[in-house]
Design goal:
Keywords: Alkaloid metabolism. This protein is α+β, with helices and mostly antiparallel strands. It has four helices and seven strands. It has one domain: Alpha-D-Glucose-1,6-Bisphosphate, Chain A, domain 4, CATH 3.30.530. It has a seven-stranded antiparallel beta sheet. A hairpin with a 7-residue loop joins strand 6 and strand 7. The radius of gyration is 17 Å and the shape is globular.
Length: about 170
């Protein structure tokens, strides 16, 4: 069984500014340092510098269906402003999923240079027997990605305003 869910948020910063956060390990650092204490307790960089092949180990709060998993960046495209990561160990794979991929895209808004759209998409594939047993589609929620995008938007706007204030604007 294959499925996909996505969500978009408009952010009042240029796409290039948003990509500086999404296209690096900075977003993982913000999330891992307590940015989402009700969702994620820690994010460790297992290997890599934020490029393709980087592996992160995410730890979730108790009470979540999944306690942790490792994900690997499979796409980091600075030109298209797209980053994809796939779960490579634990988490959804332990529940019978054969694919769990998260994609972040930063989309430039036409005619509005200081606005962009952040889009998150989750693609998943689960074995039929696991899907029936666990009601797999109910395990996949875009809400954690929405929480990360909201955290990122808040960070971007706050830093954008601070940078402007520091320039005397």
């Amino acid at each position: 069984m294959y499925g996909m869910v996505s969500h978009e948020i408009e952010v009042n910063v240029a796409a290039s500014e948003a990509w500086k956060l999404y296209g690096t390990l900075q977003l993982a650092k913000i999330v891992g340092e307590g940015g989402l204490p009700d969702l994620i307790t820690k994010v460790d960089v297992v290997q890599g510098d934020g490029g393709v092949g980087t592996i992160l180990h995410l730890f979730f709060t108790s009470g979540m269906m999944i306690s942790s998993y490792k994900e690997k960046y499979t796409v980091v495209d600075d030109e298209k402003r797209v980053k994809e990561a796939e779960v490579v160990e634990g988490g959804y794979l332990d529940l019978g999923f054969t694919l769990y991929r998260v994609r972040f895209e930063i989309i430039e808004k036409e005619d509005e240079e200081n606005k962009c759209i952040t889009k998150s998409t989750i693609e998943y594939e689960v074995k039929e027997e696991a899907a029936a047993a666990a009601n797999a589609s109910s395990l996949v929620s875009i809400q954690p990605m929405v929480a990360i995008m909201n955290l990122a938007a808040h960070y971007l706007i706050q830093n954008h305003n601070n940078n402007n204030n520091n320039r005397g604007f």
